[in-house]
Amino acid sequence: MNFNEQQLIKKCQEGNLQAFSKLVKLYEKKVFNIAYRMLGDYEEAGDVSQEVFLRIYKSIESFKGNSSLATWIYRVTTNMCIDQLRRKKGKQIYSLDEPIETDYGKLYPEAPDASDTPEEQVLKKDVQKLIKKSLEKLPEEQRIVIVLRDIQGFSYNDIAEITGCSLGTVKSRINRGRKALKDIIESDGELFEKVNV
Amino acid sequence: MTCNKIREKISLYIDGELTETERKEFEEHIKQCSQCRMEYKKILTTINLCNGLPQVEPPEDFHEKLLKKITDKNNNKKRSVFIPKIPIKIVAGMAAVFIIAFLLGTSIDSFFDSFKMDSAPVKNTEMLQFESDGDTGSEKYSLSGVPQAEKENYLKSEPQRNLELHEKTKEPVEFQQKIIKRANIEIDVEEFDKTYYEIIHLTEQAGGFIENSRVWKTGAVDSQIRKGRFTLRVPEHSFTPTIETLEALGEVKAKELTGSNITREYFDTEARVRNLEKQEQRLLEILDKAKTVDEILKVENELSRVRYQIESLTGQLKNWDSLVSYSTIGLQINEIKTSKKQIKSTDFSGIWQKAVQGFISTINKMLEFLSSMLVFMITYSPIFVIVIVALIVIRAAFKHYYKK
Prior knowledge:
The structure holds 2 protein chains of 2 kinds.
Chain A: H1 3-13, H2 17-39, H3 42-59, H4 69-90, E1 100-102, E2 105-107, H5 118-122, H6 126-137, H7 140-151, H8 156-163, H9 167-188, H10 191-194
Antiparallel strand pairs in A: 1-2
Helix pairs in contact in A: 1-2, 2-3, 2-4, 3-4, 4-8, 6-9, 7-9, 8-9
Chain B: H1 3-14, H2 20-32, H3 34-51, H4 62-79, H5 88-119, H6 121-126, E1 130-131, E2 140-141, H7 148-165, E3 179-189, H8 192-205, E4 209-218, E5 225-235, H9 239-247, E6 251-261, H10 263-289, H11 293-325, E7 326-335, H12 348-403
Parallel strand pairs in B: 3-7
Antiparallel strand pairs in B: 1-2, 3-6, 4-5, 5-7
Helix pairs in contact in B: 1-3, 2-3, 10-11
């Protein structure tokens, strides 16, 4: 934790909104990206990220600096993403690829024409789309470590701190996560042939 | 090293987390084993694909929206210092507790009511009119109507008068209200036979007996129904409970309770018997002294008249004793045909009337419920206040705990 950050935290703890705004600017992009990769939905990622910062704002008073500010923020982010995923689990989500069976026959769902949304602009390439979809199929605990390690580029130690697991657990989770992701991609299509392994 | 162990290390190798010797071993194996090499390459590609995912820009209004939410929250916080938000779950829970407590409360109340009635039948009989139907005839005592002082007066004067009458008798005069209780009940029942045996069973259970019963058929040929009339005699103490159980057998059509207070006549008669007994004693003494046949005959004549009076009065007393200790219940049961058994032609005006009646009764019940609810709420408001305060404290404690 550098000196500037410490000062910033102190100001935030005093209730300085400007200081907090600065803090948000520092972390919002990374928080948003973690949420987006975890949840796979642009809008949802926005909502959850907002919630993350609201939580941070509410409890920054009791932040004592046991861990670094960044670690704390990312831990809150991953926790809230998992909460959101579990909440979503209860609700029925219709796949856009499969017809919905109803009493009147099969219905073919159609996604609203979203080609202009930022999400679609981001996903112009098929390969990226496929990886995004595959990521969403990974179990939560593996998804976290893959997002943190291979998309956000955190070190093993950072990941251990953020997730609150031991280094050994993180190592094995990353290993299993990567293998699982590879299997999903493999079963989904001939991606590996496309990219010429 | 086996392939399995090598595969576990692919990830660590890529991230450079292996020791020098492990790394060398790994590279050696990869060179030789084409399958492991393939696996390694695929995983490396997967990682590269992930690395290639672009960083997404958050929505443009993200920052402004967030700051607005925070300021809103700050304002809310200031406002809601004293009014903590109670989550919907707690509100729902409280409502449920409320309703259960209400139902329990009403049922407990009625339970206590029945208990009171059982243990103090006097309370019930007080509502009855006590008629003195002895020779003094026209006097009527309505105990409920008589002021307390007068009642006490009456109770006191009675033994005093008795004592005056038998100044020489030393035995204490036991004073007890002698009340003949009678009830007439008419009920409609659906299952006639079942009810019939139930009545017999109930009477036996109460320690009473059936004095008289009669069952007959009546009505037009195509819709004959049975009727039954019982005269039940039950011990005085189980009078009220028996009536209650009988009433539960069917729909009560008519009900009549009477109580005749024969205390005064009873003790008067008793006194007369004692006096006559003394007279008998004296006549016997005279008889011993009698010398002529004429005298003996005259005394014997008088003696038999006195003895006849004693016997008839004692008989009257015994009859009263039985009437007082065993209350009489006249019970009539009428069989009613259930509508299930036959299809009736319905007239529509009747339906309309029934609907209107049902509607009105529902409204009345609702009003009744609301008023009792209000009473309940006001009655138990102190408890609610305590419960709400407790909930707030618990909630605050939880919040505090979570913050930690």
